[in-house]
Design brief:
Number of domains: 1
Protein name: Chloramphenicol-sensitive protein RarD
Distance between the termini: 37 Å
Keywords: Cell membrane, Membrane, Transmembrane, Transmembrane helix, Transport
Mean pLDDT: 82
Number of helices: 13
Shape: globular
Order of helices and strands: HHHHHHHHHHHHH
Number of strands: 0
Largest sheet: none
Main location: membrane
Transmembrane segments: 14-34, 54-72, 84-103, 115-132, 139-156, 191-216, 222-242, 249-271
Radius of gyration: 19 Å
Membrane topology: Multi-pass membrane protein
Low-confidence stretches: 1-11
């Protein structure tokens, strides 16, 4: 599948990866909070409308950015190799579950279990990157990973296990990225195919959902909110996929710790609280994110010094 990813103004692939990874985390954090403003839509309604609105925006983005050729490349490749059909069906299903639970959690009061999954996810990706891809970590990145492990380990001991929401997020995404990397569908064309397969399911959620189309008559503000939901979602997903392509698996995972920090902030804004002992989980991870920021600045300064 031809790689014709859009050019992002950055010094190199690493710089591009860091930029789009941080941007994706910020956009996902915004979506996590924005989903709670879509009352009276249920979690399933929000998922349906999100995907229904996201797919057209993603298509428009690929056309306007001159990347539509990636979609044709992806379609031709799958059409010419039937063995890729179950692969695409699997990745689209996995992506659908992840996008559903992301907005379902805060709507039904399960924001913290979902956010715990995003806390565990980067650590799982670091382990996968080290074992499968032989990624190397800097000293600060290694310290960040160890601190994150302390926080996650405390959470596992305190809760006595993992909820199904946490496990779906923590282990589902790494499997999704492993499969996409192995079959070389880890670009925007592959993402479009995943979204295209999710699209009919999303329409079914909208048509047969609890709210139905009549809800717009009683809540006309939902018109512009759905548009914002689709546009931001398309941008966030595109940045996330680009970051997974530009960065080593381990670094991509570690940078993902910015997202659960933002999701935690959202959960607190929604009225959920952190109990005393939970700080033993949160504090090490916050410090880990700080170390990653320091390491990022250090690498940028070192690169500029070499250029000079």
């Amino acid at each position: 599948m031809t790689d014709s990813s859009p050019v992002i103004p950055a010094a190199n692939p690493l710089g591009r990866g860091v930029v789009v990874s941080v941007l994706a985390s910020v956009l996902f954090g915004f979506l996590y909070y924005f989903s709670t403003l879509l009352h009276p839509l249920s979690g399933e309604d929000v998922f349906g409308w999100r995907m229904t609105a996201t797919f057209p925006f993603m298509t428009l983005f690929l056309v306007l950015s001159g990347q539509w050729g990636m979609v044709w490349d992806a379609v031709r490749r799958v059409a010419g190799n039937w063995r890729l059909i179950p692969v695409v069906l699997f990745t689209s299903t996995m992506m659908g579950f992840q996008l559903w639970i992301f907005l379902w959690g805060p709507v039904v009061g399960r924001a913290l279990p979902v956010s715990q999954g995003y806390f565990l996810l980067p650590l799982v990706m670091v382990v996968v990157g080290r074992v499968l891809y032989k990624d190397k970590l800097t000293v600060l990145q290694l310290c960040a990973a160890l601190l994150a492990a302390v926080g996650v380990g405390h959470e596992l001991i305190a809760t006595g296990g993992l909820s199904w929401e946490t496990m779906l997020v923590a282990f589902g995404y790494p499997l999704y990225f492993i499969v996409r990397r192995h079959f070389k569908t880890d670009n925007l064309g592959g993402l479009w195919m995943d979204m295209a397969l999710i699209f009919p399911v999303a329409i079914a959620f909208v048509v047969f959902g609890q709210a139905g189309f009549g809800v717009f008559g009683e809540h006309p503000d939902l018109y512009w909110k759905i548009v914002v939901l689709g546009a931001v979602s398309a941008a966030a997903l595109s940045c996330y996929i680009l970051a997974s392509k530009y960065l080593d698996f381990s670094l991509f995972g570690l940078l993902s710790y910015l997202e659960p920090v933002l999701l935690l902030v959202v959960a607190l804004l929604l009225g959920e609280t952190i109990k005393g002992e939970e700080w033993f989980t949160q504090a090490p991870i916050w410090v880990a994110v700080g170390l990653l920021a320091v390491d990022g600045v250090r690498q940028v300064l070192a690169r500029r010094k070499r250029i000079v």
